Amino acid sequence: MRRRRPFPLRQLLVGLAGFLLTAAVAAPAVAADAAEFTIEDPRITESSGLAASRLHPGVYWTHNDSDDGAYLYAVDSRTGRTVATVTMTGVGTPRDVEAISIGPGNRLYVGDIGDNMGGTWDHVWIYELPEPKELKDQTVRATQYDVRYADGARDAESLMVHPKTGRVYIADKKKDGGSLYEGPATLSTGGVNVFRKTASIDLWATDGAFSPNGEQLAVRGYFGGIAYDWNDGRIEQTGRLSVPLQRQGESMTYTPDGSQIMYGSEGSGSSVEPRPAPGGGAGAKSPSGTASPRAAEGNGDDAGDTKNVQVGALAVVAVVVVVWGMRRLKRRSS
Fold first, then answer.
1. How many CB atoms are located within 10 Å of the residue 79 CB?
2. Edge-first strand listing for the sheet containing 207-210
3. pLDDT at 273
4. Less Cβ crowding at N or C end of the chain, within 10 Å?
5. What is the torsional sign of CA 185, 189, 194, 197?
6. SS3 label, residue 297
7. Helices 301-333 and 9-26: crossing angle, nearest 10°?
8. Beta bridge partner(s), residue 75
């Protein structure tokens, strides 16, 4: 009678444990470039805008509020250090730079749209320049656009460029809720670019951002934020954003993969903190076309917590399997 070979339990245990541990490591809690970081550059004391680079993973563009000059800073989120300083030429002296956004073709749009005089300046400016392909200190020529509002001067801190159409939008800043203004289809240097009100924003807005696919608009204030479905400009509120409590929350940007929103604040050594984006990442929607229940509830933090629990559970299972198996092998050999 042919004798059966003993079942290779040891090999099975080792293989199963290896699989579980590999799965645990391969399931990150957040996007690779979405870790919290601190802006270390002592020159950056009033970080008022934030834009995730499309050309340089893990790099974020920012700038000071006012009285700093025509400078942009590229900050590496892995170290918090400035890896490039860009001096814009071809523009006047900035007055109150409040926002930065990236549009199609990796074009940077800088919003000199604040009004420290309480909304009395008859025009503001937008600067457009290519995102540098090389991270180094350099001067880059920018195009300056004159901007006015159809219904009169106002203060604003939120500038958003639609990632598909390239159209520029501004949300003004009012304590009792502001408005969303749409610019011309194409900005022009040949005259004044008139921005017209298209919707109401139920927030004292300090910044805004489009999801990378252009299907969602997120707007933040000092103590909260709102998520909207874009719907070709016919915005519809879908829920609240999970905005962290910060010293003076001034800025926001989606990560390039759309899974996270990064929130920044003013002040020396200010932090930039990630939170899960509404809708499950990249502006995703449920099959019905509405925002997912998680987005509507504003419980984006739960996604990261769930992933952390899953990773930990896999690691625990791997350890339990190995310990149980080794005990069985020991009993069988004794």
1. 12
2. 207-210, 216-220, 225-229, 236-240
3. 95
4. N
5. positive
6. helix
7. 170
8. 60, 82
* Residue that is written with structure tokens 């997912």 in the block: 292
Q: Tell me which residue has tokens 């956004």.
A: 101
| Cβ 217 vs Cβ 170: under 8 Å | no
Domain ranges of the chain: 1-30+300-334, 32-297
How do residues 42-61 score in pLDDT, each as one tens digit?
Answer: 999 999 999 999 999 999 99
Residue closest to 51 by CA, chosen among 68, 70, 72? 72
Better-scored residue on pLDDT, 279 or 173: 173
Alpha-carbon distance values, 260 to 190, 223, 240, 304 (Å): 38, 18, 14, 10
The CATH number of 32-297, from 3.40.430.10, 2.120.10.30, 3.30.930.10, 3.30.70.330, is 2.120.10.30
Q: How confident is the model at residue 116 (pLDDT cuts 50, 70, 90)?
A: confident
Strands of the sheet containing 49-52, edge to edge, are 49-52, 59-63, 71-76, 82-89, 138-141
Evaluate whether 276 touches 255 at the Cβ level (below 8 Å): no
Residue 280: per-residue pLDDT: 62
Report strand pairing: 225-229 vs 249-254: unpaired
Q: What is the pTM of this model?
A: 0.76
